[in-house]
Fold these 3 entries.
Entry 1:
Amino acid sequence: MIKKAAVLGATGGMGYALTEALCRKNIKTIAFARSEENLFNFKKEWGPYAEIFAGDAMNPIDIEKAVSEADAVFHAINIPYQNWDPALSIILENILDVCRKQKKPFIYVDNIYSYGLQSLPAKETSSRNPHTKKGKLRQTLIESIKHSGVPYIIAHFPDFYGPHTGNTLLHYTFEQIIKKHTGLFVGKTNITREFLYIKDGAKALAELASKEEAYGEVWNIPGAGTITGEEIANIASKHLKKQVSFKPVHRWMIRAIGIFDPLMREFTEMMYLNETPVILDGSKYEERIGPIPKTAYEDGIKETLDYLLNNHEKSAAI
């Protein structure tokens, strides 16, 4: 039973949502991130069950201090693509070393990159065919976790959307349509893809981590089905009460932008996910743990747009 948790990367999208979900389960939660200012501001939203700890995951001493009183350690740290190698490996090894010394279970937030190309909805047992540099790196990290000797949960999620998800594809599009009628949408707008309302993912992972029998395994946590860019634009149009349209951003455009933008340069190899999307099969979770929280796209998109509208109005008032 988890009485106290540590969330590393608490000011990022999933880290914020996880801290919120754990606190709402009345679990004392140590929120760890580099920015003390952001942690302090978010603590007001998380409430009394949250404790803040400012530190650097590249420094093992900071991690040791942060998780010393925790019953479980959630790794939700993410960093820009261009810094992945070798930083992701260093951070993971630092955390695993501390978990091994302190005998702490480890819960890892992962994406879908290690699955590679999949013709059917991906199950945890599906063959992994990572064909990109980032997919291969993610698979290497997974193998490190499995052979670490630390009790672990590895959870795969599709692309996030929702409040506090600043570095996601949909957030990029939503920010534009708040201010104008058109927004750039990465990939074709008529292809069905899977997104996950981030609060649903956090609730599902918090529940999973509370089950002793879930450790030592890999788990998929999918979204509420699939949706096209055109359908997202229609929902946004109705909610914002204006005609919204998306302009597709194709591979060649990303490559061209990447000449000047290192983040976009790194994103080019992941464009396959917007052409032949990977969809997650969540039947294992549903059969063994229970229903996965699934906010309908219409509701989740409306809540996300309201959050962005509120922030935009606050910024304009300053």
Note: The chain has two domains: 4-162+195-225+278-295, 169-191+226-276+305-311.
Entry 2:
Amino acid sequence: MVNFNGDLLPDSNHFLNGQNRGLQFADALSERLRYTGSVLLFWEAHYFRLMASMRQLRMEIPMEFTLEYLQEEVLKTLSASGRAETPCEIGITVFRQSGTGFLPLSQSISYVIDCVPLESAEFPQDSPGLVADLFKDYYLQADGLSQLPHNMKLPWVLAAIYADENDFDTCLLVNHRKEIAQGLHGNLFLRKGQELKTPPLSDGCSDDILRKFLLKQEWKDMPYKLHETHISPFELQQADELFMLDISKGVSSITQYRKAKYSREAATFVLNMINGHIQEQT
């Protein structure tokens, strides 16, 4: 079941057409969030991020698009799908309404809400570890657009194909200045000793809700000094640990990059802290 502009439709329903601007021009935004079975995690942060992104793309925000209205539409979709008490990943996609040519005929938008069931409200324990490589065929442009949850994901798609063709589990992407921007499985965190760092937004990483949450928290007994700073590809093999953080995948540890191998103590700490917060909310 999907919610298209407030109408509940079967997943098999064909409600998009060839004039859709999201399909033609990637003129769309997609906000992904997590539902515990009773609570929309970080709902206010997701809502305000979506509104800010729509304003930046000069989309017309409907008058009814209040925090309460969209929350009710999400819950209505979950209920109609029989998942009101099931942990789910929720997608809210907005796109400008149909019109040919680069110049939109209107700034008004349509939206789609979908939901995918999850095994647990909490993020799963870290995988056995990922083998990574650097993707350098195409660069991410580090600018204001790079921080938005936009639908133009060709660099990620090509990096995923590159990883699959070369038997890697994931890739790290670089920006046009050849600094680390982020990875296929989320924003990168690098630990060296007790220092834990991640690229700033100005380097082309995503303004992901979990990244923002982690940076703003004053964690009890936090053993690491956490800050934002540029990360050069040359630093990767000198690190003690590399992991990625994403609202969809949670924590993903890189255990090998080229000849370097890594531990994952900080990744375990971060995962436990985030899951502890989720338990408090449910």
Note: The helical segments are 21-25, 43-56, 67-80, 154-165, 209-216, 265-281.
Entry 3:
Amino acid sequence: MTTRTRIVLAWLSAGHAAVGGLYWLLLQVPESNAWMLLASALVAIAAVLLLGWVEMAAALGFNAVMPMREAARLGARRAWLIVFPLAVFGCFWLVTADATGWLEQNAGRIDAWVIARTGWTRTTGLHSAAGRIVAFVRYGIGVSLAAALLRALAVRGLRGLGTDWVRSGLSGPRLIAVSAALVAGFWLPWHAAYWRPAWLPPTWVQPAFAAAKLLAIFIIANAGWAFILRRAPRERAKPSAEILPAAAAGERL
């Protein structure tokens, strides 16, 4: 792991922890009157902007010619652009949620159709395969496209809203890399969230073990996301001024 990758990983871990803190704060705000609703809205906006700052600066941080301090400064200017990658992934989430609901509601009809057509009664594998396909569309394709758009917006600002990120995000090698990172960084570690050795004594050791385990899972997840951002499509060869600090390049949103 290079020094720059370690810096970006530390940035992501600290930033996501801060975003999680704001989310926890949002859950604690009682929505009993208009002022509390306004406070909830302000906390939610702050959380989204902080998330945008964290992600944009991390995406820029992998540019070797840009110091991390400059990446953080430029990322703060473009933090609001996070709404576009969030909207892309949100669309995939909604569509796949509808697809999952449709498959669950029509599972019996699907079984009947398969049995009538083929005489095959073991349809469990078919439903499992359909679920994996939906998961791949939601997470593999959805995350790959969102990360590609995030990288384009971080580097180019609003000019990144072209169509190049769609082609790059749908490329086979990147879809495989993103899917592998999601499995290794999120899906597999999460299976250990509720695991603990049976021999642990019922003392302070158990909560200490749980805290250390969750911290390890959190760091692994951030490492997986850092890998996805690093694998996100880089801009085509352009004048070096476009990836130099904004002050030197004279970039404006």
Note: The two ends are 33 Å apart (CA to CA).
